[in-house]
């Protein structure tokens, strides 16, 4: 599905009027300027249901008069939703851009919400050829994006909890860190639920460990005798009252990890269901090693309107996976592109890191980069 909406602004603003909104937590400053850059109206609207109704009524009035363009810093939220419902064209100017634009008006170090609203409105008037309207995604894509980002947040929380648990166990129960590949794997969490301190682990023998692993549904990748050797070969953990006290924290971290793992599993099921119903699912699932979650993540972050990426390079630049070059005289500097869509960058690098396992071109590119000293991802 490709977006058919206009991807550029008209040369002149409708009815020679532009508007800027400076978004804040409690209220929103609104500025309207005419064709000569003079502020013709300034209002402040509270961030509540009544205020948003007032904002919508204001722009419905302007829209009927022919003025229907607004510059704002954020691409989403209740204010943006309200404006889109009123048929307003929205142009997003990032906070970093706005910070630099203040210097045009002689106040680069000053910060005022009402003045920022004026700067947004006037920039929309003067820099139209460089600005692009916000093209909202379909409800299916927006829902998929929220689900994918929720999963990403849960995965980050799982990693943090796993790191905390690993650091804790290295001090109070070192033997349990080594036996299994991942401290947050189901078998590792089941083991820690059953044996959460050195006192309880002392009960184990090779035979007892083998019986427990069989009952827990262990895959059998590593022989129980080897696992037992890893467990007993590590330094002895805390015992007695100290071990019992630390076991409380171990159980708390294990319970938290188990809960987060269940949440991620539920989100995976939602993502699979939402992706199956999406019209563009076949495009992204055809990519090498895209799977379900990765394909959904790419689709959600790229969005429906592919026209905003006229070339592959433009997509790479927005995702921050293309270098940033600076040239002055005979000096050229190539550096990391920090100004990018961070969410899109995460999705793109996750895909790139694993695509080398199924794509010859990506494999060759990866293999040639390693001898040059480049770090490599570990999918």
Automatic annotation (TrEMBL):
TM spans (from-to): none
GO terms under biological process: DNA transposition
All copies of domain Transposase IS110-like N-terminal, residue ranges: 19-174
Top-level division of the source organism's lineage: Bacteria
InterPro entries linked to this entry: Transp_IS110-like_N, Transpos_IS110, Transposase_20
GO molecular function, one term: DNA binding
Domain spans labelled Transposase IS116/IS110/IS902 C-terminal: 282-366
Protein name: IS110 family transposase
């Amino acid at each position: 599905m490709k977006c058919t909406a206009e991807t550029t602004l008209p040369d002149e603003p409708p009815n020679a009027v532009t508007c800027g909104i400076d978004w804040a937590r409690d209220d929103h400053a609104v500025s309207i300027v005419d064709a000569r850059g003079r502020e013709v109206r300034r209002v402040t609207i509270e961030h509540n249901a009544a205020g948003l109704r007032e904002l919508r009524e204001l722009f419905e009035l302007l829209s009927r008069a022919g003025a229907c363009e607004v510059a704002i810093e954020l691409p989403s939220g209740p204010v943006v939703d309200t404006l889109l419902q009123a048929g307003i064209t929205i142009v997003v100017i990032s906070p970093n851009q706005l910070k630099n634009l203040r210097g045009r008006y002689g106040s680069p170090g000053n910060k005022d919400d009402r003045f920022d609203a004026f700067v947004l409105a006037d920039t929309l008037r003067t820099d139209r050829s460089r600005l692009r309207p916000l093209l909202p995604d379909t409800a299916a894509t927006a829902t998929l994006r929220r689900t994918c980002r929720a999963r990403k947040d849960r995965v980050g929380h799982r990693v943090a909890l796993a790191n905390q648990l690993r650091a804790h166990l290295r001090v109070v129960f070192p033997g349990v860190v080594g036996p299994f590949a991942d401290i947050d794997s189901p078998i590792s969490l089941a083991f820690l639920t059953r044996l959460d301190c050195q006192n309880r682990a002392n009960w184990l023998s090779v035979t007892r460990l083998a019986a427990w692993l069989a009952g827990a549904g262990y895959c059998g990748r590593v022989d129980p005798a080897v696992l037992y050797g890893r467990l007993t070969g590590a330094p002895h953990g805390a015992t007695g009252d100290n071990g019992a006290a630390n076991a409380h924290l171990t159980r708390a971290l294990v319970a938290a990890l188990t809960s987060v793992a269940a949440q991620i599993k539920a989100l995976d099921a939602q993502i699979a269901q939402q992706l199956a119903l999406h019209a563009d699912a076949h495009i992204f699932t055809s990519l090498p090693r895209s799977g379900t979650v990765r394909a959904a993540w790419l689709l959600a972050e790229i969005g429906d309107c592919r026209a905003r990426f006229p070339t592959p390079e433009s997509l790479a630049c927005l995702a921050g996976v293309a270098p940033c070059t600076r040239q002055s005289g005979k000096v050229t500097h190539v550096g990391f592109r920090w100004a990018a869509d961070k969410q899109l960058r995460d999705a793109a690098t996750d895909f790139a890191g694993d695509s080398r396992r199924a794509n010859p071109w990506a494999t060759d590119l990866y293999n040639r980069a390693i001898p040059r000293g480049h770090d490599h991802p570990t999918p």
